[in-house]
């Protein structure tokens, strides 16, 4: 897939998901994308052209994870996790991970103490970057 989850944005990175620091900025980021889709400007504004809605929605989700973690880190551990391409009915069983394998990361994060790591991204069970 094109782009990165943290660096997804319009106009060559002018507004990226990685720069979102508040809920308001996230709303502006997503609103900009939606407006560009309506105006058929996705390619012209340098948004990802393949799977654009999927990529931008994941970037926004990752940005919102960081916003929530910053806002509530004293009370809860808030992280994002990608379970991997999982074999399910949704993808006609083309995924490479079983549901049991894919569940390991989310379950591990759910079992962390509330005052544990927060604002991070995990690829399955491994600490990763939002990039």
Structure notes:
It holds the Pfam family adh_short_C2. The protein folds into 2 domains: 1-72, no CATH class; 74-131, no CATH class. It is 37% helix and 10% strand. It contains 3 helices and 5 strands, in the order ββααβαββ. A 3-stranded mixed sheet has the order 3-4-5, sandwiched between helices. Strands 1-2 form a two-stranded antiparallel sheet. α1 runs antiparallel to α2 (52-72). The two termini are 12 Å apart.
Q: Specify the number of helices.
A: 3
For the biggest sheet, the summary is: 3 strands, mixed
- Helix fraction by DSSP (H/I, runs of at least 4): 25-40%
Question: Domains counted in the coordinates: how many?
Answer: 2
Distance between the termini: 12 Å
Task: List the strand order in the largest sheet.
Answer: 3-4-5
Secondary structure class reads: alpha+beta
What does the overall shape look like?
flat
Tell me the number of strands.
5
What integer value in Å does the Rg equal? 16 Å
Helix-strand string: EEHHEHEE
Q: Whole-number average pLDDT?
A: 85
Low-confidence stretches: 1-6
Strand content: 5-15%
Please give the structural blueprint.
Layout: E1 9-10, E2 15-16, H1 23-38, H2 52-72, E3 80-82, H3 99-110, E4 121-123, E5 126-128
Parallel strand pairs: 3-4
Antiparallel strand pairs: 1-2, 4-5
Helix pairs in contact: 1-2
Family: Belongs to the short-chain dehydrogenases/reductases (SDR) family.
GO molecular function, one term: oxidoreductase activity
Keywords: NADP, Oxidoreductase
């Amino acid at each position: 897939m094109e782009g990165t989850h943290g660096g997804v944005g319009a106009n060559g990175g002018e507004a990226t998901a990685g720069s979102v620091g508040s809920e308001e900025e996230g709303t502006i980021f997503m609103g900009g994308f939606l407006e560009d889709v309506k105006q058929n400007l996705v390619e012209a504004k340098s948004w990802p052209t393949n799977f654009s809605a999927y990529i931008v929605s994941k970037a926004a989700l990752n940005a919102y994870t960081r916003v929530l973690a910053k806002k509530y880190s004293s009370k809860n551990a808030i992280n994002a996790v990608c379970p991997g391409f999982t074999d399910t009915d949704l993808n006609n069983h083309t995924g490479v991970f079983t549901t049991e394998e894919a569940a390991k990361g989310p379950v591990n994060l759910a079992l962390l103490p509330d005052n544990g790591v927060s604002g991070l991204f995990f690829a399955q069970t491994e600490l990763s970057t939002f990039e």
